[in-house]
Every structure is written in C-alpha cells, then in structure tokens.
C-alpha cells in the first residue's frame, strides 16, 4: 500500500481533474505490475498495472491508493477491468468521494466475488487526495500558501527589493512544490513588480503548472514574461467584472484564458474565484503572494496549507510585510494553523502548517 501511495504522489500536479492514483499488483509475494494515473488523468493507474501484469494478474491482489472507479467516462470502469483480469483481492484505503463512485466501485468488486479490504494508510491517502476531495466536495481546489520572509515577517525592503531573501536551497524546494500543484497563483502586484515566469525550473522536462494571476482590472504589462509565453504554458487571469474590454481583448489575443469573477468589497472574491477554478478541473493551487492576495485567502478561510520559509535577516518596520491587512481585532478571530513539519533548508527554516480539520 505504501508503494501504491508513493506512486500516486509522483503524479501530483499532472493528472487534474482526476486524482493521481497508484496501483501495485502482487501475486505470490512478487510485484507483477504497477501503474500511476497518466498526465492529463488518463489512462488510470489500474489498467496500466494490469497491462504490465498480463496473465499474472489472475489470482493476484491489487493495492490501489483510492477506490477504483465504477462509472463509464472516456475509459471503462477500473472496477470492471480488475474483475475481468481475474484479480481476487483489492486493498484500498479510502472511498472515492466523487458522486459517480462513492462506494460503487467497492460494491461492484464485492458483487463479482472480489475480496475488498479498506482502512489501510487512510491518513496518508486523505492527505494525498485532499485537493481532489475538496474539488468534488466543496467545488474548489486545495490551496497551499507559500511565504518567503525575514525573521520579522518582511518580504521586501521599503524600496521593493526582494531577490533574494531566502537562499538557493529554499528556492529549489519551492520549485519542487510548484511541480506537485496544478497551478501557481500570484496577485497582480507581484506580477507587475517581479515579472515572474511562475514555471518549474531545474527539474528537467516535465508538464508545467497553469500560471494564474489575480488582477481585478487586468492592469498587467502585455510585454511581460507571462504575456510572451502564454501560448507555450497556460496563463489564466482572474479578473473582476469591471476589467476594461480592451485589456481583456489584448490578453485573449496573447493566448491567455480569462476567468470572470465577482467582487468582495474592492477586491476579487477569492471564494468565487476558486470555485471557478474548481469548475475548470483544478485540484491543487500553489499561491506565492503577494501580501494582499495572501491576506484575502487567509481572511476567507481558504488556505489549507501554509508553507513559511524564514531567512536569518531582519528588515524592520519600514520593510514590506508578508501579509496585507486581515482586519483582526481579537486574538480569537485570528487564523490559526497546526504545525505539521519544521526543518532546516540550507540557511533557512521551513515550516509547514495545516488548517484545523
């Protein structure tokens, strides 16, 4: 089961809108087949593992990191494929929360005489599939918010200098995190100030995440890196209803996809924006700021995981804060998270926090 889960984690960020599932087929104590959901979500893990196993699948056990699907989509149900191959036992940690499955896969297997074992490694599986479960359950992707800051919570000097507060090891870790998410999100201010590429670098050839920018009025430079590469790597722009028509058209011509969002006060309603991204199939979004966007996500309770890189320097009160205004007047109203992990990354410290269940 641990191997099936590890295989599934290899596909995180590449299989949306489907979950990244791992499958291992074992017969007589020997692995005879393994598979992981392919980029783009198809084919699923089970038929790939069965193809590798061939005739050795008959009488074998399949370890699958999520309940096998039971519905006809672009491919036949995986539960049926397991039955047809002669699998006699299926071990899976969790029920698939997709309403089209939701226990039907297990029922189909049991109905065909296949032994089904559940409940193994459930915590790890729930963490691995958190983005998929949020999309099918709440209609939005999981959000990881990353902050790279000084000891006193600053992300730039008063003049805006920010490259680089953290060291090369921390930046390499961020690229690994980008690679496990479907999309990378920044606010319009960050896009204007840093002219980022928002892609994954240093890991060889691989599928790239969607690049997202939240900009109410689309006041973004059309000669930026994102603009020049929008036809090579997808760029989706979250904008408000008052974004000027000429700016919309300019970005359409460049190849960007526009996502029209409502407003909450003077800013984009990020709850609505995330639901729009969920409708488009995204399951995991990696947000890299800036401060106002980070604050809006935190205020709305939309941050599921918080990753903080802290560098051993201080910039003082005149430095630019990592977070914009949260409007917190009482400690009881402040967003709180549970510490999941803390370790040294080069000269910096990385902390991973999770939202309370």
From TrEMBL:
InterPro entries: APOBEC/CMP_deaminase_Zn-bd, CMP_dCMP_dom, Cytidine_deaminase-like, DHFR-like_dom_sf, Eubact_RibD, RibD_C, RibDG_C, Riboflavin_Biosynth_HTPR. Zn(2+) binds at residues 44, 69, 78. Residues 1-109 form the CMP/dCMP-type deaminase domain. Its EC number is 3.5.4.26, 1.1.1.193. It holds the Pfam family RibD_C. Binds 1 zinc ion. Substrate binds at residues 162, 178, 198, 201, 288. It catalyses: 5-amino-6-(5-phospho-D-ribitylamino)uracil + NADP(+) = 5-amino-6-(5-phospho-D-ribosylamino)uracil + NADPH + H(+); 2,5-diamino-6-hydroxy-4-(5-phosphoribosylamino)-pyrimidine + H2O + H(+) = 5-amino-6-(5-phospho-D-ribosylamino)uracil + NH4(+). NADP(+) binds at residues 148, 164, 190, 194, 290-296. The active site is at residue 46. Keywords: Hydrolase, Metal-binding, Multifunctional enzyme, NADP, Oxidoreductase, Riboflavin biosynthesis, Zinc. Its cofactor is Zn(2+). GO terms for biological process: riboflavin biosynthetic process. In the N-terminal section; belongs to the cytidine and deoxycytidylate deaminase family. This is Riboflavin biosynthesis protein RibD.
């Amino acid at each position: 089961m641990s191997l099936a889960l590890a295989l599934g984690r290899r596909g995180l960020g590449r299989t949306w809108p489907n979950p990244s599932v791992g499958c291992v087929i074992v017969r007589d104590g020997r692995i005879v087949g393994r598979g992981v959901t392919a980029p783009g979500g198809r084919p699923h893990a089970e038929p790939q593992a069965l193809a590798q196993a061939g005739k050795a699948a008959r009488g074998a056990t399949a370890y699958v990191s999520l309940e096998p699907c039971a519905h006809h989509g672009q491919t036949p149900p995986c539960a049926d494929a397991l039955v047809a191959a002669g699998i006699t036992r299926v071990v899976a940690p969790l029920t698939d929360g997709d309403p089209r499955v939701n226990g039907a896969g297990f029922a189909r297997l049991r109905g065909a005489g296949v032994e089904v074992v559940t409940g193994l490694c459930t915590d790890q599986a729930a963490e691995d599939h958190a983005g998929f479960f949020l999309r099918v359950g709440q209609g939005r992707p999981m959000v990881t918010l990353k902050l790279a800051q000084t000891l006193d919570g600053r992300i730039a000097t008063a003049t805006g200098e920010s490259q680089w507060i953290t060291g090369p090891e921390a930046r390499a870790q961020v690229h690994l995190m980008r690679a496990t998410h479907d999309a990378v999100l920044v606010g319009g201010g960050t896009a204007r100030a840093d002219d980022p590429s928002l892609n994954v670098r240093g890991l060889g050839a691989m599928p790239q995440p969607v690049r997202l920018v939240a900009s109410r009025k689309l006041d973004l430079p059309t000669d930026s890196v994102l603009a020049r590469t929008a036809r090579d790597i997808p760029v989706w722009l979250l904008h408000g209803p008052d974004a000027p028509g000429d700016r919309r058209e300019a970005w359409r011509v460049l190849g960007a996809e526009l996502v029209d969002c409502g407003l909450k006060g003077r800013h984009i309603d990020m709850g609505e924006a995330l639901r729009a991204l969920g409708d488009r199939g995204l399951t995991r979004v990696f947000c890299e700021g800036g401060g106002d966007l980070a604050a809006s996500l935190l205020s709305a309770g939309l941050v599921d995981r918080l990753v903080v890189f802290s560098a051993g320097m201080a910039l003082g009160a005149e430095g630019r804060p990592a977070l914009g205004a949260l409007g917190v007047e009482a400690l009881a109203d402040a967003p709180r998270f549970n510490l999941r992990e803390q370790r040294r990354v080069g000269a910096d410290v990385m902390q991973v926090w999770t939202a309370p269940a």
